[in-house]
């Protein structure tokens, strides 16, 4: 008793509260607890505020979206060296804004079809733009589009053929990006013949699609196009995949190191996953794992016969493989495209490894020696309906440099 009474804490207490011993003890402890918790609470809030403020500033300055960082941590970025970092989140973070800025002729028709089914099943908003021929925008159009995208009720997945949009630059929250690319020469060939001869929808289809195309363009031998430097088979037209990842900056469309490096950086910072079409089933599997709220069951749907019937996904385009000489020339012209493709493929394989999937094939050799097998290596994917930018200026195609 004496001890308690002599403590300074007790002196301030009202007689009511110090009447009996049990009460006193309880009160004493709760006072301490209150003091500590208030202080801790303040400290926590201050820390939290600083953290949030800091991450906001970081984000607005062009850092990766927070949810992306969390997913990376969840996956375990750690090697043995940085194993002592903050504990990984136990629950996979759920991005509620996803953009798929689909690249032309890289299987996106298939993926969009899958998304239609998934959107219904998992109740997210799928907005698939029907603008197929405008990948670069003025500043004003960019802001307009980004505002539109941001106003879609979440969770949403927005998809369009459009070069990367930098939301952060305009102080809008950056969504998470996903994409799929494919071997650059195969993509080019697929587009070349698609423009001329259409797809599974039959012989007449190409005539409806490109009615203004003259016969000497339509039946132009691809070897002539390449070896005689027609614009369609030369740069900058061959610089096609990189700008989707580089962005809207004019320099993003100039074949070169600047655009390449920026595109790579962007893949690391803003893309949750960039898959490669050659391993489409693994891409779908990873999407299922990384974005379950959008992609659960996608592989089951993809493998079901009903899906293939529904999508009429059986046809192929007429395709001739260029001569080895022409392929070699093409390969050298697409140097940056290949550097980018190889980078993406390595990243993709790394992600597969983290998830515990084995790579389906050995990394392809990086020299033109692989060109001979090129056409055989890639299964022809399901052709898309989309047209590409530049279709309408096809009238200038005969102009040679
Ligand atoms: C895109 O296609 C639409 C019609 O499909 C056409 O009106 C428009 O001019 C095209 N835009 C470009 C930039 O080619
Ligand atoms: C944005 O949405 C408005 C209204 O829905 C539409 O008129 C406009 O064309 C859209 N802009 C873009 C860039 O999609
Ligand atoms: C996006 O904009 C921010 C802010 O202007 C900039 O720091 C960042 O480098 C840009 N990122 C890309 C990929 O253009
Ligand atoms: C598939 O083809 C059939 C007949 O050829 C057609 O009626 C149907 O609309 C096509 N489906 C799609 C998704 O285009």
From TrEMBL:
Keywords from UniProt, A to Z, are: Glycoprotein, Golgi apparatus, Membrane, Signal-anchor, Transferase, Transmembrane, Transmembrane helix
Q: Does the keyword Glycoprotein apply?
A: yes
Q: Which domain of life is it from?
A: Eukaryota
Which residue ranges traverse the bilayer?
A: 41-60
Q: Where is this gene product found?
A: Golgi apparatus membrane
Methyltransferase as a keyword of this entry, yes or no, is no
The segment annotated Disordered runs over: 1-20, 378-401
Please give the GO cellular component terms listed in this UniProt entry.
Golgi membrane
Pfam families, per database record: Sulfotransfer_2
Q: Which SUPFAM superfamilies match?
A: P-loop containing nucleoside triphosphate hydrolases (SSF52540)
Q: Where is the composition biased (Acidic residues)?
A: 381-392
Q: What is its main location?
A: Golgi
Q: Which GO terms describe its molecular function?
A: sulfotransferase activity
Q: Where is the composition biased (Polar residues)?
A: 1-16
Q: Describe its membrane topology.
A: Single-pass type II membrane protein
Give the family from UniProt. Answer: Belongs to the sulfotransferase 3 family.
The name this protein goes by in its record: Uronyl 2-sulfotransferase
Native organism is Chanos chanos (Milkfish)
